[in-house]
Design brief:
heterodimer; A: 380 residues; alpha+beta; Butyryl-Coa Dehydrogenase, subunit A, domain 1; Butyryl-CoA Dehydrogenase, subunit A, domain 2; B: 396 residues; 4-stranded mixed beta sheet; 4-stranded antiparallel beta sheet; 12 helices; 10 strands; 45% helix; 14% strand; Pimeloyl-CoA dehydrogenase large subunit (chain B)
Chain lengths: 380, 396
């Protein structure tokens, strides 16, 4: 049992923290947001230069063969700086599908572009009626010759507006909510029949609603078994959830730090408001919530090594519950303790609150994951 | 980072588990499971079994009878003990006064007291709180006046846990009334059978008798019963209170209680099916289990950190343990009561020691819920814990 970072991991943490300290303060973030697509190609290039975009890929595929802990380190740092660049969509999710389900040809075709920063990905999964159920898929992929024809609508596709390649879940057979008959397809974003309507999201990222109308792809577009893709989807989404837990811990950590800083500097009635016990105890409760969240983020991360797939999934769901609760508490109380200034777009704190709020509602909210833990028979 | 225990640690866990299985008297275990009070004899009998095995004062230095275990081994031992469940060693002797004596006491005191603490030849109680000094402990008024080779002690202590069983008390007394309040306090130990000591029971809301008021009326105590230096008692008290950082989360106790909730909620029906199948109840249970898992991990982080970097520098996460640990213990007793619903009502008139057990298995459940409200009050209330986080962690 060991919760310390290894020497390499410590260096990784220093490197990403250093990069973001230099290039990602709140003013810089505002500038990046105004760039085309809503994030900075230059920062993305720096992440590539430092090898961060290649971390989780096997050395044979040009990566560093890093594991879940390394992803946790990076995501926590990205959460602290409220990074806009599509690491989750591209490296964690896009990369995850390629690593766990991709053929040698698919890996060779797509991974180098992720690692060198020239290509980004988006995961087109959410549908009008699917909510958090990954197995609820109405979009269809129908066989045509050796290839497939995809029809359907996907919503709130993170980085969907900018991505070069879309990873699309589509039904190859069965009814809308059947667990079997779901495939995962690589679709070039510029393929004929793909229509993207992009927009900024509440937390300053970018997403798109995407319509697929008779989009034709080859047989080589399917990742894994096109009739039994749900297990792969669940696995990759669990990794995305785990990564988001770490991102949320970073955001919570920074929220608490700035709130405590504010309590020390803001004066009312002639004293720093941090001298009021009611505010001190609120901040102490935020610390408790943060440490509980940090513990569960580590738990989900280390669960990646669990033998049982069911235990892995339950651990991630449990972590998402804790992060959802802690994130909501810390987010809301950060605003409350900042008072009026916390309500302004100008102050950084509200942006953490918004990102934490969106994380809670991505890939299953607190209630959804609590039900999953319950249905799995609990944790003890 | 690695969550798994080592092969040696797993073997150790098996050894500890097997020892508890084979050596905890079944009747003691049953009473623990049902949340009943144990008699003094039952507790002492078990502690002597533990001491004979060499595990009675496991965390003491080896020269005084400790085991030399790693932080992880201590963690495993405590968790298995709590989950079995079996009574933990008497904290007032083993975790509190023992370490003060071997750290600050003289050679004679070490020889006189330590072996008797380990074997519970003396039952110790703690004379800290007073009617006017709860969270503000340093305002205590009990006085020890030096007269020749004696201290004359006058005053009153309260919330003295199991003083009705005690042979010895360790007491914070004011020896200098002119000094600033933390400065004039001394740490004095004495015999509870001394002339002038009166113990009066306090009945708590669960109907139990755990705590007492203790009155001192011109109690004569030899000066050699002073531990360490006169007027340095506050330092020893702080040392004592800071000693047990991780045990306080009581993760094993909550785990055991969750098992019991599942067991009992399978036996009580609602809408024609066991309560345990009710979705609302199950979700509350799962929510509690998630909180507990997070706490367990937080505790493991503290334990691993202590193992690696020593106990000198407290991990900031350790202050979470008391707050969350007590909240979860309270939630589990609440869920236990919710599980049996209306059957929580009957009140069992039982003796201190669990004699006269007339009622069935539900009788101790509401009392246990009422009794557990104490856990967020004692050992530094949760509000005091928040003050500690505020100052020590957040720097406010």
């Amino acid at each position: 049992m060991d919760f310390d970072l290894s020497e390499e991991q410590r260096l990784l943490k220093e490197s990403i923290d250093g990069l973001l300290t230099d290039s990602y303060d709140f003013d810089a973030r505002k500038k990046y947001q105004k760039e085309k697509g809503g994030w900075s190609k230059a920062v993305w290039g720096k992440l590539a230069e430092q090898g961060l975009l290649g971390l989780p890929f096997a050395e044979a595929d040009g990566g560093f063969g890093a594991g879940a802990v390394e992803t946790m380190i990076v995501m926590e740092a990205l959460g602290k700086a409220l990074v806009l660049e599509p690491y989750l969509a591209t490296v964690v999710i896009g990369g995850g599908f390629l690593r766990h389900g991709g053929s040698a040809e698919q890996k060779a075709q797509h991974i180098p572009g992720i690692i060198d920063g020239s290509k980004t990905f988006a995961f087109a999964q959410l549908e009008k009626n699917s909510r958090y159920d990954l197995g609820d898929v109405a979009t269809t992929a129908k066989k045509k010759g050796a290839g497939w024809v995809i029809d359907g609508e996907k919503f709130v596709v993170l980085n969907g507006e900018n991505a070069d390649t879309l990873i699309v879940t589509a039904r190859t057979k069965g009814g809308q909510r059947d667990k079997s008959g779901i495939g995962v397809f690589l679709v070039p974003a510029n393929a004929k029949g793909v229509t993207r309507k992009g927009y900024p999201t509440q937390d300053g990222l970018h997403a798109a609603d995407i319509t697929f109308t008779g989009v034709e792809v080859g047989a080589d577009a399917a990742i894994g078994d096109p009739e039994n893709g749900l297990a792969l989807i669940e696995r990759v989404v669990d990794e995305a959830r785990t990564a988001m837990c770490a991102e949320a811990v970073g955001a919570m950590d920074e929220s608490l730090k700035s709130t405590v800083e504010y309590l020390k500097t803001r004066k009312q009635f002639g004293v720093a408001i941090g001298s009021f016990q009611t505010l001190q105890h609120r901040a102490a409760d935020m610390f408790v919530a943060l440490e509980q969240a940090r513990s569960m983020s580590m738990f989900a991360t280390m669960a990646a090594d669990f033998d049982s797939a069911k235990e892995r999934a339950t651990a991630v769901a449990a972590a998402k519950v804790q992060i959802g609760k802690s994130g909501k508490f810390i987010g809301q109380q950060s605003i409350q303790l900042h008072g009026g200034i916390g309500m302004t777009q100008e102050a950084k704190i509200g942006h953490y609150f918004k990102r934490l709020t969106m994380i809670e509602n991505t890939f299953g909210d607190t209630d959804y994951h609590l039900r999953r833990v319950t249905d799995a028979g609990g944790l003890v | 980072m690695d969550l798994a225990f080592s092969k040696e640690e797993i073997a150790f866990r098996e050894e500890v588990r097997a020892f508890f299985r084979d050596n905890v008297p079944p009747e003691t275990r049953r009473k623990m499971v049902e949340g009943r009070h144990l008699s003094k004899d039952e507790m002492i009998a078990w502690w002597r079994i533990l001491n004979k095995k060499g595990w009675g004062v496991s965390h003491w230095p080896k020269e005084y009878g400790g085991t030399g275990w790693t932080s992880v081994q201590h963690y495993i031992f405590n968790e298995e003990l709590q989950m079995h469940p079996a009574p933990a060693p008497l904290a007032f002797g083993v975790s509190m006064v023992g370490p003060v004596i071997y750290t600050f006491g003289n050679e004679k005191q070490k020889q006189q007291y330590l072996p008797r603490i380990a074997n519970v030849d003396d039952w110790w109680c703690q004379g800290f709180s007073e009617p006017g000094s709860g969270s503000d402990l340093a305002s205590l008024k009990t006085k020890a006046e030096r007269k020749g080779d004696k201290y004359i002690i006058n005053g009153q202590k309260t919330w003295t846990t199991l003083a009705q069983h005690a042979d010895m008390i360790f007491c914070l007394c004011r020896t200098d009334t002119n000094a600033k309040k933390q400065m004039g306090i001394s740490f004095i130990v004495f015999d509870m059978k001394s002339k002038g000591v009166t113990v009066r029971p306090i009945e708590t809301i669960d109907g139990g008798h755990e705590v007492n008021e203790v009155f001192f009326d011109d109690v004569e105590v030899p000066v050699e019963n002073l531990i360490g230096e006169e007027n340095k008692g506050w330092d020893y008290a702080k040392f004592l209170l800071g000693n047990e950082r991780t045990g306080i989360a009581r993760v094993g106790v909550s785990k055991e209680r969750l098992r019991r909730i599942k067991d009992l909620a399978s036996k009580v029906e609602s809408n024609g099916k066991p309560v345990i199948e009710d979705q609302g109840f199950r979700e509350k249970l799962a929510a509690c289990e998630i909180e507990l898992k997070a706490l367990e991990l937080t505790q493991l982080r503290v334990v691993a950190d202590e193992g690696k970097h020593g106990k000198g520098k407290p991990n900031p996460a350790s202050s979470v343990l008391k707050i969350k640990g007590s909240e979860i213990q309270q939630t589990t007793t609440e869920l236990l009561m919710e599980g049996i619903g209306p059957f929580a009502a009957p009140y069992d008139v039982h003796g201190d020691d669990g004699s006269n057990e007339t009622m069935d298995w539900t009788a101790q459940i509401a009392p246990s819920y009422f009794n557990n409200r104490k856990v967020s009050i004692y050992g530094g209330s949760n509000e005091i814990q928040r003050n500690i986080i505020t100052k020590a962690v957040l720097g406010l």
